Amino acid sequence: xxxxxxxxxxxxxxxxxxxxxxxxxxxxxxxxxxxxxxxxxxxxxxxxxxxxxxxxxxxxxxxxxxxxxxxxxxxxxxxxxxxxxxxxxxxxxxxxxxxxxxxxxxxxxxxxxxxxxxxxxxxxxxxxxxxxxxxxxxxxxxxxxxxxxxxxxxxxxxxxxxxxxxxxxxxxxxxxxxxxxxxxxxxxxxxxxxxxxxxxxxxxxxxxxxxxxxxxxxxxxxxxxxxxxxxxxxxxxxxxxxxxxxxxxxxxxxxxxxxxxxxxxxxxxxxxxxx
Length: 275
Hints:
Structural class: mainly alpha
Largest sheet: none
Radius of gyration: 19 Å
Strand content: under 5%
């Protein structure tokens, strides 16, 4: 476990250092866009390499994809909002660095439980943290994708309809990859052998979740909300959708879940509309 924690620490430290160098303007030097792209690719490869050295690829693939999405989403958020201010950027980097470390610990709990086919007491807090990470993941990625039309190059383009279709396509790809990477999280058995019924239910859950959030993200493009407002609503919708799927897979879905979900969505939409 000590060797795993060292790898988790190195990954988190790498994210912190690269994020700070790229997005905190200590010397007021403009970093070219291609440098940011190379840095993001380097982080992805580094995380992948280090984690596959301590984990069995058979049990860790989808979990690593989810982690990589979380890391890249945070970097894109910083990239698209260079005017946040140094204090806000440093706070975001520090908080997400801690979250990335804890997320790796949570993923490790799932990994050990799945490999040993044993239910661990730590699975419950790990599930809560992964759930929180999922909501933040959808929020930062939504912010990044909704910001695409505001780039100087694309903003001057005459074919704005094509750009909107491109964003819709990116949302679709993102949600398919996201929910596919949650294969291990959307599990109603925790331990034991997979049955055809379980596999079928999880496939249905993945398709339903991806399509639901894609439709919501697309529909919100028609509303005159700010980027943060739209992204907040996507995050709240992700909470509702994944909560419903979790209850469905654990056979706990009832009318009260639907009623609570409805009120959560109504309150969130009202707040964004008012603000």
